Amino acid sequence: MNPARVPFSRAWRARTRQRLFRHAPTDNQPVVLRHSRIYLLPTRRGLALIATLLTMLLASLNYGLALGIAITFLLTGLLAAAQLHTFRNLAGIEIAPLSAGESFAGGEIAFALALHAGSAARTSIQLATIDGPAVERGNVAAGASLTATLTRPALHRGKVALGRVTLSTDHPFGLWRGWSYVHFPLEGIVFPAPEVSAPPLPLGHGGTQTEAAGRGDDADLAGLRAYQPGDPPQRIAWKAVARGAGWFSKEFEGAGGGGPLMLSWTSLPATLDAEARLSRLTAWVLAAERAARPFALAIPGTMLPPQQGRDHRRAALTALALFDARRA
Amino acid sequence: MHWQRLFVRQSRDAAHMVPLTASQTRCIGALLLAAQLPQAPHLPIWVAAAGVLLVALRLALLRRDRARPLAPPARIPSWTLVLFAVAAAFAVRGSFGYMVGRDPSVAFLFILIAIKFLETRSRRDGTLLVCLACFLLITPFFYSQSIIAAIAALPAILLVGVALDALSTDERDPDRPYAWRAAMKRSGVMMLQGLPVALLLFVLFPRLSAPLWGLPTDFGAQTGLSDSMSPGQISELSLSDAVAFRVDFETEPPPAGQRYWRGPVFSRFDGRTWSAGLTQFGGEFAPNAAPAITYTVTLEPNFRPWLFALDLPAALPRLAAGASTGATVVLTRDQQLLLRAPVTDSVRYTQLSILRSSYPAGADEAAPNLAVGRGNPRTLAFARELREQHPDDKAYIQAILQWFNREAFVYTLAPPFLDRDPVDLFLFDERRGFCEHYASAFVVMLRAAGIPARVVTGYQGGQMNPQGGYLIVRQSDAHAWTEALIDGKWQRFDPTAAVSPSRIELGLGGAMPAGEPVPFLARLDGTWLRTVRLGWDAFNHDWRRNVVGFNYDRQRSLWRDLKLDRFAAWQIVAGLAAIVFLWGALVIGWLMWKRRRQERALVLWDDLNRRLARAGLPRQPHEGPLAFADRAATRWPQFAIAFAAIGKSYATLRYGAPAATRERDALLATLERAIEVLPAPAALRSAE
After folding, report:
1. Interface contact B190-A78, CB threshold 8 A
2. Nearest CB to B7; choose among A59, A82, A132
3. Phi, then psi, of B144 in degrees rounded to 5
4. CB-neighbour burial class of residue A8 (10 A; exposed 0-12, middle 13-18, buried 19+)
5. In a domain, A199, yes or no
6. Which of A55, A78, A86, A93 to mutate to test the interface with B (most CBs of B within 10 A)?
7. What pLDDT was estimated at residue B540?
8. Model confidence pLDDT, tens digit, residues B606-620
9. Are A165 and A128 in contact (CB under 8 A)?
10. Which pLDDT tens digit goes with each residue over B158-216?
């Protein structure tokens, strides 16, 4: 819709809603918490104290106790000072997105945020995603930084946004809860859950290599060659490294000789639905990587040439994660 | 997502049930003790002892737990606490004779808080106890609002902050000792920061002109006038700041010592209670010799037909227009002004008086003023003995007054209860009394010696409002003095003046030192001690007037002085809002200015980013200062050194360890100079 055509009242409502609840991820790069995004409300303890102060005020007024009124207002002053301190504990914090993690469906996605205290020390700052349980409570000294890791459950394959993050504090006295929302467009990728007890890897171009699905052990070891960047870490000859012989990668019988594997959508039995196929392909990608065999991946919309290594594995898993079922 | 929300909320509930750590319990215990101690002297001894001991018991159990960390924690089963509470309720009921009322309620609260503390386990209980302790802070003021009482409340106020601080710092190693001193300091600093708010609220918050609900019957007999007077029966007269009347003087107001506002006169005495004789209308005004004082009285309703005038009235009052029709005033033979109907609404009248302490008596007035009533044998014997030494009336009266002054008599608002032969008990045993006691005893002694005498009640003194130029006479100014018939004239004598001269000069507030006057102080005649005492009196008087006495009337007069009463409510609210808004704008502006100064590096960096973006090299969001400076240096090699300096100094300023001010300044200067070296964006673009 053309933004100029939106009626003013609706635009205003949308703006207010965004300002109040930060439901859309509009924050970019470091956000400095200012008064316009800090919210303050009394906690239960604060409400209890306010109720007590009201009772005290009423009793003092009725009985004409000037000193009772003075004490009531002194404590009211304390309440007001606590409010200011709670506000100041949040105001000026700089928060920036660092990275989003990856996970298989059913796991948890970790997001890293950088918290910079700014010119004041921060006490008991809580960070939480909308799913709640990921909470970190921390003190940050003035000028110092903190890397906070928040997690969200990875329920389904695809992308998981960090969503709205709540920074909150009830320091000092726990009478007021101050909080602030930041909403970064940070997304983690959830790979499909690998199929449990998946069938062995399909045949490569070179012949029957069903045994290669298992981890290559020393019996299949063909020899060592000089390490090249990109070689998977599990193939590094750690014993040689430990001996001080230098960096070598193991070569396995059949691994190279078997030729690249072809992991293809179309070669799977037609009885499987899309998610089941993705699960099996994921399991195979992992198996191929464990076996250190190069593989190609062909799914509707994506075609990865045969390769191996961490980046290739990641590219394959990402393609599986972001597969659009409508294209199948 | 709803069930997740619900889950989160429940877990927050669970957080409230977090058990208290030992140091948190200790902090709350300290707060409770500090809040209990100022209240304890006003309670029956067993309530005070039980309350304080129960709190101490819990603290002792904590200490035992710490001494034997492996033993199971000492616990008192919850059901015994219910028994405790019920037992305490019955004991309080038995001790006071009733339950619904202020004093038993305070006592029960006092002991209940201690019982609750015994079983306090969770943080929510802790919050509850802090709130209850706050309420306990104001209960001592029911009994005394002296400076001492105010000072006694201060430690507890400070500990409220400490307890809250302890409750909210949870991730504390339970074995590590709680940082008391730091918490005290934090609490004190926050209290000071809240002080302006407190002061503003104290001055501006509207007071009540009348109580919201009826004061409970045990609020104590008010210091006001009644149609009878029983010394020793009203065992505690409390301070009442209710206004009796206000006076605007047209002529120079008389000095405080001469402001006797005449009210009911009592001549009948049964050995215990004074009451008025038969009301006799048709009094005659004393002959006008001295210049008269003219003034206008605004009398608050007293539900009696009494009008008050300076001793002695010289004419009938002129009621202001608007007074109910048919309201006529008469003068009784004992020189009291009576309205035909009780004063149920405020009445305004202009009155003429002559300041004189004697006036001619009628021939038949001696006889009804000689009865001494039943009992009080010691007083009568003592009076006869004294009379033998002083056959002259005036010498005899002087002897009594000197005796009052010499002996250890104490002027107190809280006299002991006198059961039988109240005058005897007062004069020879207790020697602590209010003006009524002195007046009563004095008249009995005069009558015993055959001198006709009677008690006059009314008000004495009053508070001059220096700004408003009017006098406020409060119920607490209620007074009783005497008249003796000597040489055919009624002559005024004020025995209270012999005991407590400051009562007459400074009013009740000046005469009452903090709380209960200590008997040995009253005995002192030493000059410097007397000076100290008078200074203390004056200080206390100021305290009473300006802090304790800051009530509805004083607030109104303050508003009048500030010329605020001319404005409508909305104008005042608008003005306040404008002040708050301006104040906020100033504070925010100052903070922004300060921040810009503090974060000058950030400002410079932002400025550089804008310039380089215009020159065609925008900084990528993920790019740190060093990487960006590197990229710029590759693009414009001729400024490579400047870019390196910029990147390094900015990164150090922003992300380095906190540096000393001088280092920061040096880095800032480097950053500033390096940026200045760069040409304008257009020149940079073409310099590629």
Report:
1. yes
2. A132
3. -155, 135
4. exposed
5. no
6. A78
7. 62
8. 888 888 988 888 888
9. yes
10. 999 999 988 887 655 555 567 788 889 989 999 998 898 899 888 888 877 666 665 44
Residue A213's pLDDT is what?
40
First-residue to last-residue Cα distance in chain A: 31
What confidence score (pLDDT) does residue A221 get?
65
State how far the Cα of B163 lies from the Cα of B271, in Å rounded to an integer.
56
Q: Which two tokens stand for residue B279?
A: 């009301």
- CA pair distance B511, B504, nearest whole angstrom: 8
- Residue A239's domain spans which residues? 210-327
Residue B172, by phi and psi: left (phi above 0), alpha (psi -120 to 50) or beta?
beta
Q: What's the pLDDT score for residue B33?
A: 95
* Whether residues A175 and A236 fall in one domain: no
Instruction: Determine, yes or no, domain membership for A218.
Output: yes
Structural domains in chain A (count): 2
Specify whether A118 is located in the same domain as A163.
yes
**CA–CA separation, B139 and B347 (whole Å):** 36
In a domain? residue A205 = no
Residues A136 and A230 in one domain: no
Of A137, A159, A191, which residue sits at a domain end?
Answer: A191
> For the ranges A225-229, A273-277, B78-82, which has the lowest average pLDDT?
A225-229
pLDDT, mean of residues A236-246: 77
B250 to chain A, minimum CA–CA distance in Å?
A: 32
Distance CA B239, CA B414 (A): 10
Q: Report the length, in residues, of chain B.
A: 688
Rounded distance between C-alpha atoms, residue B281 and residue B264, angstroms = 13
Catalytic residue among B27, B125, B334, B435: B435
Compare all CA atoms of chain A with the CA of B216 and give the residue at the minimum distance.
A63
Return the bridge partners of A136, or none: A127
Query: Does A98 contact chain B (CB < 8 Å)?
Result: no
Catalytic residue (one of B42, B437, B479, B541):
B479
Quickly list DSSP for A112-170: EEEEE-TTS-EEEEEEEETT---EEEEEE-TT-EEEEEEEEE--SSEEEE---EEEEE-
Same-domain status, A151 and A275: no
Predicted confidence band at B596 (pLDDT cuts at 50, 70, 90)? low
Active site annotation includes B565: no
* Whether A69 contacts A61, CB under 8 Å: yes
Give dist(CA B19, CA B31) in Å, integer. 19
> B665: number of CA atoms within 13 Å, CB side?
3
Q: Residue B518 pLDDT more than 70?
A: no
Give φ, ψ of A204 to 5 degrees. Answer: -80, -175
Examine the pLDDT at B97 and tell me if it is beyond 90.
Answer: no
For residues A216 and A155, membership in a common domain is answered with: no
3-state helix, strand, coil in chain A (%, to 5): 35, 30, 35
Exactly one of B125, B393, B494, B537 is catalytic; name it. Answer: B494
B435 catalytic, yes or no? yes
Asked if the model's pLDDT at residue A208 lies above 60, the reply is no
Judge whether A67 lies within some domain: yes
Q: Cα distance from A299 to chain B (closest Cα, Å)?
A: 33
Residue B521 pLDDT exceeds 50: no
Please say if the pLDDT value at position B235 is more than 50. no
Same domain, A178 and A215: no
Contact A69 B202 (CB under 8 A): yes
User: Is there a single domain that holds both residue A169 and residue A247?
Assistant: no
CB contact under 8 A, B215 and A62: yes
Say yes or no to pLDDT of B3 above 60. Answer: no
Strand A122-129 and strand A165-169: pairing? antiparallel
Average pLDDT for chain B: 79
The reply to whether A31 and A135 lie within a common domain is: yes
What pLDDT score does B453 carry?
Answer: 93
A132 and chain B in contact, CB less than 8 A: yes
